[in-house]
Amino acid sequence: MEALLSAVRARQRRYLWLQGVALGFVAACLLWVGGGLLGLVAPRIGGSLLGLAVPVGAAVACVFGLWLARRRVGDDLLTARLVGQRRPELSLDVLAAVELRREQAGQANGSPELADAFLAQMDTRVRTVDARSVVDGRPAQRSALAACGVLLVLALVLGLFGEKWGAGVKRILEVARTPVAQAQVEPITGDIELTYRYPAYTGLSQRTVPGTDGAVSAPAGTEVVIKTRSDRPVERAELVINDETVPLQVSGNRDLEGTFIAKKTGHYRFVFYARSEKPLAVGPDVPLTVEADKAPQVTLMTPAAELEVDPGQKVTLKYEATDDYGLSGLSLVFRTPGAQQDTRVPLRREDGRRSRDTYTWDLGSLKVDPGDRITYFVEAQDNDAVEGSKKGVSRTQVLRIYSAAEHHRAALEKAEQLWGRMVDHLADRLEGPDRDKQKDAQAIASAASVDTSGQQLITDMRTLAQTLSRERDVPTELVSALANISESLGSHINGTADFRRLYLRTQRARGEDWGTGNRLSGVVTEEIAELEKDILYLEALLDRQKLEALQEMGKQLAGERRELSRLIEQFKANPDESARQAVMEQIQQLKARIQELMQRMAEMRKGIRDEHLNAEALSEMMKDQDMQSALDDVEKLMREGKTDEALAKLQELGMQMDEMLKGLDEANEEFGGEQYPELAEKFGKFMEDLKGTVDEQQRVAEQTRQLRDQARAQNKERLSERGESIKSDLMRKVQQAQQSYDKLNPEHLNSRAARPLEEAQSELRNVENALKVNDFDLAAEAAARAEDAARQLAGMGEQQKQLDEMFGNPPEVRQQSSELAQRLDRDARNVQDVNKQLQSLFPPPGSQLSQQEKQQLQQLSQQQQQLEQRAQDLRQQMEEMEQTAPLFGEEASQQMEGVGQRMGEAAQRMQGKDPGRGYGEQQAALEGLRQFQQQMQQGQKGRKGGLPLPGGMSGRKQGNSGRDPKDQVELPDEDAFQAPKEFRKDLLDAMKQGAPEKYREQVKRYYEELVK
Amino acid sequence: MRDRRMNRWVALALALGLGVATPAVAQQESSSLKDEVKTRLGQVEQGLDDWDVPGARRELAAVEQLIPSDVEPLKYYQGRVAFEEGRYDDAVGLLEGANIEDKPGSYLRLAKDTRDIVKSHERAESEHFIFFYPKGKEAVLVPYALETLEAIHRAMAEDLGWTPPGGKIRVEVVNNARELSKVSTLTEKQIRTTGTIAICKFNKLMVTSPKAVAQGYDWQDTLAHEYIHLVVSQMSRNTVPIWLHEGMAKFLESRWRGKAGLAMTPSTLALLGKRVKADTLIPFEKMHPSIALLPTAEDAATAFAEVFYAIDYVHQTKGAAGLRAVVRELKAGQTDRKAVEAAMGMPFALFEKSWLSHIKKQPFPSELVPRDDRVVLKEDAKNKGKEDGEKKGREISFGDFNEVAEVPARKFAHLGELLRERNRVKAAAEEYAKAHKLVGDKYESVSNKYALALLELKRLDEAESVLRGSLRVHPGSPATNVHLGRILLHRKDYPKSKTAYLEALASDPFDPEIHVALTRIHGALGETALASRAKTATVVLTGLAPAEVDKLAQQFLREEGELSETNVPATGGAPAKAATPAPPAAGPTDAGR
Q1: Cα Rg of chain B (Å, integer)
Q2: Which end of chain B has less neighbouring CB within 10 Å, N or C?
Q3: Distance (Å, rounded) from C-alpha A364 to C-alpha A376?
Q4: A386 and A201 in contact (C-beta within 8 Å)?
């Protein structure tokens, strides 16, 4: 039975321990997790919780395992009662047996045998009893389950907030590591007076700051004089500055004074001594700040970061350099390509902390080639005499030496891109549904995107033509071709778009196309033909440009070779090491350049698609190995000192290059002739005819002039008398008209009004001037032209008025245009009147001519008619050529048409026996012809035969003066980089408000800097 | 190009030298011995002149019995004979022993150059020929070359009744014009200006590898052509004048593959037609003594065409016996006129009249076809095409259209190529169609580019029609045949495809595509031996392993996309496939005989 009781008790204890451990573990975990999380906000509390976790866990376990065990498990009686409760079959027998046994051990009151028998029986009965059935294990199980549940929850919490928990723990650890702030050391001195004696280089005057807490802030090298009073009588005192000791002078046991040099940032403290060596008192650490001397700040204000300049141009640099204490040097630092080291140019510098100036940099002295890049910056040095001077530099900028070849290449690339888009557009049209016999309206509608992309292409082409026309060194023929193509192709694309809309509208409205589909096919076919023509011609032009670029490169190579020869000759005449070095360097440069050019040539050559250009043969001539190896030989010979042989070798190379250049020249000259044989022939004939027409017109005009002069001479006196009488009236009218035109703003009419207005004004001035000198002939001629212009203006005014009425514009607008129309009409009549009066001075045309002269004029008139016919023929030829290539464009056609009209007008005047006006018209025609001829000749660049090139038309020529790279040098106003006025005012106001005493000087300095 | 007078002079000088050089012998031998040596050496010379090397050898053997072996004239002739027999090392040793100066044009220089060029050549033999070829891809030529040579050998035995005596005929392949110049004594300039590609001289055939010619050339016909020159020279003892020589060789060169007279090109026929129409044929008198002396190249081409029809007329009237009779009469010492009269049994004037009337009966093309009988060496070609080893890919090039004389057509073709370059094939086809409409089948370049675009658009029937049209005007064009072959192979029409590819091979044997295609075709037709031959060639040209070749051949042209853009790899300096179709060199000028 004892065994049972003992087993029961042991089990009870075990369960209690189990419960205790489970609950203790849970409690520890709760504290652990909670402490960690709390550590984020309250590290100390969190830390405490963490610290408590294990003890609390252990305590809980002990409570169960020890205290509760003692109370619940108790002695045998308690256990026996428990057994009796749990095993009803034993009832209180077990308790009785226990008590009986106790009594047996003491004084037995009953029969010992019976008692033994009972005990023996009980032993037998309890033998079958299992302690497990007596002790209830469920509380332990519940505790374990609860613990598991809590642990799971904690695990979840850690999963979610693990990082925070980690951070909390980290914080707790950090806080734990932080030593507890030392006990505040109380100051042991009163207010401290500091006197700063700055280093000389800073230019700062000595400064005394009384009543400070002792904190020192000064540039390195500053001598600091410190004065204070101790809070107790001392025998001796010292300063401990960054572990160095500086004795203080003690006067009257309390007043302390000492000096030290601020060298590095740290702390200092006062230490007092009585008689003994042991410090009497140690003051708190006082901050010592050594202000660093900053490197100078340099700013390059102009020019822009990258600027294109002409070789030899002057570039103005505007720079500013500042330093906290002063500048000792300022220089421009640059490097040219190939230079081994930087070049420095000293710049002007103002004394003081700020230097602001401009420097005109003359690039003429530099040896640079087109396309080279010069990098440069401004460097400043400060005057730091303590730690040594420091450097500051501006940002590095670049000057790019203008290279016509690069611009040329860039223009070519852009044009080629557009050309590629033209080919794609052609493909789109060819593959599109527009020409299908059975049209699908939906497909036709979707092909509208091709119209849009085509229109965009035209816009881009026009834009490029305009952009290029403003640049210099771009191929004019390419610009003209682009402009011509954008005109002709643009009208076709717009036509296609219009017909597409028409087709779709008809289709939608009526269900059938009413023939618009066929018309659409027709216009697309025409557009395709135009595209084909334009693509081929533009391609030929591009190829030609590439060929020219090849030529240019070849010339560069030849030039370099000549330079090398010159150097070798020099060396031969004066053989010294530096000359030899120059030769060697030139050889290296030449080799590198050949390599580069060869590569570029190869790329260029690949891009030429012309069937006839024997580019392969050309490239064979240029085989770089040959040139390279020839240069290798030259180099070798130079090393061996065989200058004559090196020169001979170079001569050979030169011949090879000449051969190559000759080949390129020939190829260029003939280029396109095979592609466009008919065009070349027609163009040649056209130019001949043009020349013939010009010559003939000149001849006829000259003869007409002679007749005119004869008639004038006869009229001169009579004219003078009659003219004098009406002169003042005429002058008044002319001035009246002039004033009216001066007030006119052409924008009120339309965009085309500017020209006639200008003409009217100019001619009226001519009339006025001619009248002043009694030149009535000239006045009459000018008046006739002024009348034309005035009529045009009046017509435009009337047109504008009608338009405003038609579109129902606001009444005030209509009123305005109506008044303007009236005014212009009045002016026109005025001018007409002047003209009429002047013309009336002259006898009727032909009246002064003899019969013979009349006959002669008649003949000349016939010849002039023939010339008009020739002009028409020329125009027809132009149209024919336009079918093959966009050589002329709308403007040229109009120009030639204008010439024809003038010629017709001249013939008519001469028919009417008016040699004066006839000659005027002839002159105008001749001028137009010459201008046209000149444009076409310029376009051909002096070539005869080969691919005809479009002429640069007048409109483009005006804008073709080329952009000067100097324009890009920005030189803003002096004020541009200064602070705005408002800002400066604010700052000055702020300055007035003052600052705390100890910052006053610094603040003042700061504001001064800002408003500068 | 033998200068008989020069050789006789040398013989004489040597004979005299014999007396001077060996005074002891001269004193001891009777004058009859001197005469005999002189006579026999003269006969050696004559034998060599008459293309009778065995005869010369026999005479020389007799001389060797009469005089010591170190006599220089003996060595000279021994060297000459050794050279003609292809024993170049011996020839160099002997000629050096004869103190012949080593200068350009001398036999010693010739022997040295030839020895150096062929010393590392591979050799292959058939019953009647030894084929020497440079190591590398020329190995591909061997079976086809030997087949061609044996075939023409049989045909000439049948037609002219002559088989060359004295063992197997040497055929030497050289790499380029420079080498041809060295082994033939023609200058490089002469070779380039005349377009000479092969020569029959020194008792052997010398041909330039097709790899040296920009667009390939009809190398199999050329081999046959040169062999006929050899036969005619030997058979007649070198008595046939050039005009007859060329006429016969040109007329008979197609015998290796069928009937005689198939080698006339439409372009030459068109030229002849133009001259007939303009009544500007070259009369026989003007051809005499040499066609080469005619004022223009066109006159010479016309004369050659007329001569071709002269032989055609003889053959038509008298058959091969007529040709044999002409040669026989010439050998017997008759003039060319007399020989023809004897063979035809009519006065020469009548023959001439009948001949010209025969010419006029020919079916001339309606319009002039560009001349395509000029051989352009690769290094002279404007458009060199792709480099060796490069894949054919899309075959974009513009230079091919420079032959198109009609400007509008050329422009349309150019636009087509521009569009094809940008992968706008449908649009490209339309532009090509415009060009093709303007010039028809006149230009291979236009037809082939048009066909390629159509192939890419899967319009196979139209492409085939264009290609067949082109082949009517430019038969044998390798590129056209390859493109046609692709269509036929794609349709699995193996026999026709085989014909097309073999035609292409006859001009451009180094295009790996041809051999890959043939591997597949022979395989499909069950021609295992031929398939194996094509496979071997493919291995040589592509560098692929045999198993990979099988795979490649099986996959070849299974996809429609491959019709216009095949990517058969080429390695080991495979031939630069003409980037675009180009005229076959239908009639290489074989300047020397």
Answers
A1: 26
A2: N
A3: 16
A4: yes
- Residue showing tokens 């990517």: B567
Are the C-beta atoms of A484 and A889 separated by less than 8 Å? Answer: yes
Distance CA A697, CA A927 (A): 10
Q: Do residues A198 and A324 lie in contact, with contact meaning Cβ atoms separated by under 8 Å? A: no
d(CA A364, CA A373): 15
pTM of the model: 0.65
CA A527/CA A438 separation, integer angstroms:
20
**3-class SS at A147?**
helix
E strands, A180-254, are: 192-197, 207-212, 216-219, 223-229, 236-241, 244-251
Taking the CA atoms of B68, B72, B73 and B75 in sequence, report the sign of the dihedral they define. Answer: positive
Q: Is the preceding peptide bond at A433 cis, omega within 30 degrees of 0?
A: no
C-alpha A117/C-alpha A108 separation (Å) is 14
What six digits make up the tokens of B175? Answer: 């790499």
The DSSP bridge partners found for residue A226 are A194, A258
CB within 8 Å of A278: residues ≥ 6 apart: none
Q: Residue B510 corresponds to which tokens in the numbers above?
A: 């180094």
CA A946/CA A674 separation, integer angstroms = 8
Best of B192, B386, B404, B419 to substitute, by most chain A Cβ atoms within 10 angstroms, is: B419
Q: How far apart are CA A670 and CA A684, in angstroms?
A: 14
Give every CB contact of residue B131 below 8 A, 6+ residues apart in sequence: B123, B124, B125, B141, B142, B145, B146, B149, B171, B173
Q: Which residue has the tokens 């023609």?
A: B186
Whole-angstrom distance, CA of residue A884 vs CA of residue A865: 30
Q: What is the 3-state secondary structure (H, E, C) of B132-185?
A: EECCCHHHHHHHHHHHHHHHHHHHHHHHCCCCCCCCCEEEEEECCHHHHHHHHC
Considering CB atoms only, which of A426, A536, A612 is closest to B411?
A536
Helix (H, G, I), strand (E, B) or coil at A898: helix
CA-nearest residue of chain A to B418? A423
**pLDDT tens for residues B505-557?**
998 899 889 999 999 999 999 999 999 999 999 999 888 888 888 888 888 88
Which pLDDT tens digit goes with each residue over A209-224? Answer: 998 989 999 998 899 9
In angstroms, the CA A290 to CA A435 distance is: 86
**Ordered alpha helix ranges (H), A63-137:** 69-73, 76-86, 93-105, 112-127, 131-134
Q: How far is A433 from A440, CA to CA, in rounded Å?
A: 8
The Cα A678–Cα B551 span in angstroms is 54
Is this complex scored with an ipTM above 0.95?
Answer: no
Q: Quick one: A23 exposed, middle or buried, by C-beta within 10 A (0-12, 13-18, 19+)?
A: buried
Residue in A300, A301, A309 with CA at minimum distance from that of residue A374? A309
> Could you say which residues from 403 to 432 on chain B have a Cβ atom under 8 Å away from some Cβ of chain A?
407, 410-412, 414-415, 417-419, 422, 424, 426-428, 430-431
Tell me the nearest-neighbour CA distance from B454 into chain A, angstroms.
14
Does residue B568 sit in helix, strand or coil? Answer: coil
pLDDT tens digits along B336-388: 889 999 999 999 999 988 988 899 888 887 766 665 555 556 555 544 444 44
Which residue(s) pair with A193 in the sheet? A227
pLDDT, tens only, B252-306:
999 999 999 988 888 888 888 888 888 888 887 787 766 767 788 788 888 889 9
Return residues 88-127 of B near A (CB < 8 Å).
none
**Interface size between A and B, measured as CB pairs under 8 A:** 59
Give the CA count within 13 Å in the CB-facing half-sphere of A382.
27
Identify which of A396, A398, A499, A496 has the alpha carbon closest to the alpha carbon of residue A453. Answer: A496
Q: β-strands A279-282, A266-273: how paired?
A: antiparallel
Closest residue of chain A to B380, computed from CA coordinates: A617
Matching residue, tokens 């149209």: A879
Q: Is A290 helix (H, G, I), strand (E, B) or coil?
A: strand
Joined together, the tokens standing for residue A160 give 């979610």
